[in-house]
Specification:
Layout: H1 2-9, E1 16-19, H2 22-31, E2 36-39, H3 45-50, E3 59-61, H4 66-78, E4 84-87, H5 91-98, E5 105-107, H6 114-121, E6 127-132, E7 137-143, E8 167-174, E9 177-180, E10 192-197, H7 203-210
Parallel strand pairs: 1-2, 3-4, 4-5
Antiparallel strand pairs: 6-7, 7-10, 8-9, 8-10
Helix pairs in contact: 4-5
Amino acid sequence: IGLNVAKLLEDTHNIRIIELNEDRAMSLADELNHALVLQGNASDEDLLLEEGIENTDLFLALTDSDEVNVIVSILAKRLGAHKTIALVKRDVYASLAEQSDDVDIIVSPDQITVGGILSHIRKGDTMKVHSLQHGEAEAIEVVVHGDKNTSKVVGSMIKDLPLPEGVVVGAIVRDNELLMGSKKLVIEQGDHVLMMLTDVGKIHQVEALFSENE
């Protein structure tokens, strides 16, 4: 899951991965284009400080060890990370993490998807990502900003939107009213557009389409 998140975000975010195993670290570095892979221990306080943990918006602990994930999340938060997410399988460690103010979000293997992680990384109200069908699909909620001059979608009918293959508009929430996503429905400023997609890799294309021009 960590590798997939890094692949999706490395072009637009400053991503660092800490991997203890040297061979695995080299393999990750080969698979990624821009993310920085560090061979080391995530519980190494000096390493975290050297890499600017105090400027980290989100620290994700996604190892196979509940103990490690909880401990390094607590350490990262106390060293200045703005938000921490820990992958926890066993209830005893989930309970421990819940008692700590230093673990902001706890996710279980049954709940975790790339989209689920992305929903915590996105800023503002532009996009929210929700897991569906046990991770087999993702639901995206996008808030439409701008007007016909600054938006690529305002004033367009759903049937005319250049959506990536596999992305379908299911409904629009407008002024607290749910509108079914008929082909002739016109997108307006402030709409909450609800879409489904089966390939989380298409999220960047959807985000670009609905982003407001500068």
